[in-house]
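Good morning,

Attaching, inline, the backbone tokens for the sequence recovery test we're adding to the shared suite. The designed sequence is right after.
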């Protein structure tokens, strides 16, 4: 596959995932005034569905040899499981903020931001840990491509989650 065709395939896959995410993971009309519980359920459903689609997008956009495939997918599953724990922590933090943003004290705001930065640092540490493992089974270009795909998927998820996060006062 040429680079251009490969890029177009990735773009098409990501567009499909983004369309799904922007639609909220379903095709029903949204409630006129969704409750926080409705928004929480919708966000958790979207995250769950995006995570399920993630592997398909990677598989469609990261050509692997048979030899690479076995090693890559074993590492991928471990990495995904560890990342899922961080996503869960981030969701809890977002929900805590969203449910308390109108009465947020200065101390709560500081704690939320500090906790967010801790999660981001853990995420970077996890990525660095796994980059070395991926490099053992993939070429350098494939490793770069894989993390580009992951970053694009993370951006889509962040966009979706941002829809339910109000700005602090």
């Amino acid at each position: 596959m040429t680079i251009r065709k490969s890029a177009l395939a990735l773009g098409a896959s990501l567009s499909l995932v983004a369309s799904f995410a922007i639609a909220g993971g379903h095709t029903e009309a949204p409630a006129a005034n969704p409750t926080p519980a409705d928004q929480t359920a919708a966000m958790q459903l979207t995250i769950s569905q995006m995570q399920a689609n993630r592997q398909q997008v990677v598989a469609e956009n990261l050509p692997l040899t048979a030899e690479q495939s076995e090693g890559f997918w074993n590492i991928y599953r471990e990495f995904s499981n560890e990342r899922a724990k961080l996503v869960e922590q981030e969701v809890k933090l977002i929900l805590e903020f969203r449910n308390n943003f109108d009465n947020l004290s200065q101390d709560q705001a500081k704690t939320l931001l500090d906790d967010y930065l801790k999660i981001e640092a853990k995420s970077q540490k996890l990525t660095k840990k796994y980059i070395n493992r991926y490099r053992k089974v993939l070429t350098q270009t494939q490793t770069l491509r894989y993390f580009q795909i992951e970053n694009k998927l993370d951006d889509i998820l962040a966009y979706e989650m941002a829809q339910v996060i109000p700005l602090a006062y």
